[in-house]
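Q: what does this look like with pyridoxal-5'-phosphate bound?
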Amino acid sequence: MFATSTIHINRKALESNLQIIKNYLGPNVTLSSVIKGNAYGHGIEVFVPLAEECGINHFSVFNADEAFRAHKASVQNSTIMIMGMIENQDLRWAIKNDIEFFVFEFDRLSAALEIAREVGKPAKIHLEVETGMNRTGFNNTQLTKAIEILKKHEELFSLEGLCTHYAGAESIANHARIKTQIRRYRSAYKKVVSHNLIPKKRHTACSAAALSYPETIMDMARIGIMQYGFWPSIETFINFIGKKENKQDPLERVISWKSKVMNTKNVKTGEFIGYGTSYIARSNMKIATVPVGYAHGYSRSLSFQGRVLIHGQRVDVIGIVNMNLLIARISDVPQTEKGDEVVMIGKQGDSEITVASFGDFSNQLNYELLTRLPMDIPRVVKLNREDLDIYDK
Ligand SMILES: *Cc1c(COP(=O)(O)O)cnc(C)c1O
């Protein structure tokens, strides 16, 4: 192992989160595990087979590259669905390999049909409808035209789904907009069905929509952040917990991120630490360098304010986060030595650093920090029973 830090994936936590989500969705709803952004930083290659062991057989990705990786990582022949980008030239690969994809504009629609004809195999498409997010999706007029085209080529596609995405279901501030979107989706569904095109799955919900607008769950829900043990927002957490006796957070974080002390040093009062004059020792102090910096996904914006765990204690990140290292003040844990474990995210003893505590409890930060964790940090899976660590690299 040559890496300076490792990302640990807790299988038991994942299994428990998925069970909670499945119970919430109910028995007749497919849970599509959203693994875009390198499985929210957890690592597609490690995450897919683990989720499959926990009963998942449907994955949503953003683009063709992620679909390729997920397809390769899958050991149970799961369904892979591309929600965003795929070049027309890659549709051939997708269709041949049963990769499903969203269709939200005519160029992709005609390319898909044309390639399906050449390949001699129907394209597995999900029609995305515009309901008010104004990002992608056929609006009402375009949908009419898309239906017309599809009706002429029924042998060239199978309509796997009819879908849309909500513009901010995690906040009550968007309530009216979401309600409008739900209404428009229903009317689009009626329209498609009235032409005798029957989508196999109606799917619209992400984590927040599934939590705050249960009517959006339909035949399938595309769940990302919750399966990793995070709530889309405080509001959605409160909504969920409000109806429960037990007010404890039932979700468990799947990820943790660890490194080791590279060296320690005593610094005298009045000395500057690190580049320039940004940090001055106001007392004699002991510091530790940790070989993790912004090049490894530890944001420079955590300069002066990050925290890490050493010997079960929360200690301050002092000065500016460098490209490849950060400095922690360890005066309160003076027994610290080279090689001691440092936790950037996760638990140590009774303490925990959550991703959210990296800043204020801003949910966007959860998504961003996780997905920025570099792909090349080795992922280590913590298994249930044996408590063995298995390295994937
Ligand atoms: C990211 C995404 C999801 C999942 O969102 P979460 O908030 O992580 O559950 C669902 N649908 C689409 C189209 C997405 O882009």
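The chain has two domains: 11-238, 255-353. The longest strand covers residues 341-348.
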